[in-house]
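Following up on my earlier thread - several people asked me to post the actual chain instead of describing it. Fair enough. Here it is, all 534 residues.
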Amino acid sequence: MKTIKYIFLVFGAIVMLLPSCTKDFEETNKNPNSPEQVPSYTLMTNAQKRLMDDTRDEWFSGRMALPWIQYWAQVNYTEEDRYQYRENSNNTAWKDIYTDLMDLQRVIELNENAETKALNGAYGNNDNQIAAARILKSWAFHLLTDTYGPVPYHSYATQDDDFQALRGLSENILSPTYAPMDKIYKDILNELKESDAVLINNTDEYVLTQGDIIYGGNADLWRRFANSLRLRVALRMRGVDQATADLHINELTADIDGNLFRSNDDNAQFTYLETSDNASPMYKAYYVDNRTDFAVSNAFIDLLSGKKTTLTGIEDPRIHTFACPKGLNSKDLALMQANEIFAMPISDYVGQPIGITSEMAGAIPIGDVSLPFYPLKATYGEVFMDYAEVCFILSELQGWDQTWYENGVEASMLQWEVPAENINTYMETLPAADEENVMTQKYIALYMQPYQAWAEYRRTGYPNTLTLPGQVTWVDENGEDVIFEPLVDTDGDLPKRVGYSQEEQLLNPDGYDKGKSLLGGADNMYTPLWWDVN
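Reply from S.P.:
Thanks for posting it. Predicted structure:
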């Protein structure tokens, strides 16, 4: 029975989910009754969409990382805001991400197998398809290891006894071991570097002629994504393995314009459609599932409205697309002109208090706080990585460089459709680049990429505008201070990681025990990860 259940978790879910996951997307479901014959481009579409659906939904994102990094706060059930997440959400996320990885592994196999290679080569260069799948696998494994720590890992190029994930069908490894984080990091860097080498030799050929929602098959943009992601990974590990990190950083920065994202046009994002089946995850949560459970947090609204840190007194115009004024929702604002939206006074934006009890949260009328705006659009584009982040990384690597810092702020403003006059006004008041200001702006720019913002906080300690356990989070209607009291001990800080899936503990006990031993601490929320030396 145990084996049967685990096969379902790591593979059977693909066969069951694939026909419905990409409904109407690029007409990918040509033969829903024969999933074993599905062409590679349908698997790529499915993986791109599902990775965003599964990591940016109301559960894994909305009830975990978004409130932890204090972009949003829940308006009813605030246990997750106070770090007591639902184990079912964790189990589902773990299972879903590995299922998505199996789709990408199948893309690779279809483009290598002698019996299927020619057929799938009709949809794009075989080697380019493999490279793109390796890049997305690297993105997903990076998210997993930065969330949990040591995890089951799979490599395309490296044969290693620690890399056993996704090998259930080919090698009957149904209980994969857990790989150390340092090995995972080094191999991700290698996977991305090798993928770039493949794509740079085939930039005149399509990755896919259809089904690539991120880049429309453009090989040069895929390689820029690979290199930009490699820069992110290298920077994150630099504090614990500077030699390896700098080797990759120096290669990439030797030709910044040739290797990395150059503008927002290069951003890696998955843009959704108007139809309810294919709308963005948070649109579906609010307007399809009728779960109006989140508002923008008071910590974030206070930062944007100029009430905190070195940005005190500076109003950030991105607040007008990040959030709605109190009393309005995203559909109300969608009917208005940009000049009306950006003219709304900052005082109309009020954040939901972070880390209060469910009873306190439920007593605040929903019309008294700011709901999200752009992230609730049906056609919102969920970002894998963007140009603004690259700019902030380059600013940091060049000693908090002013030009790259300003480029990052401007790129973020443009990405969030801030009018030019508002951008110019903000840039004129922007404080000079230093560690605090660059990292605070990076945090703002990573809005709706909460797992990346959370990782950067753990790496650097910024922004310093977050409300930590034991601090005052709100002054209630009686003028009384309300203290942020977490339900789970995180040693007085934000969580350091998510605990391993309980289902994994039951189905893969040997792997789980290996993961715990590699952690170097307890399987709880305040055991720091390998690179977390802040």
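The first helix runs from residue 2 to 21. That should answer part of your original question.
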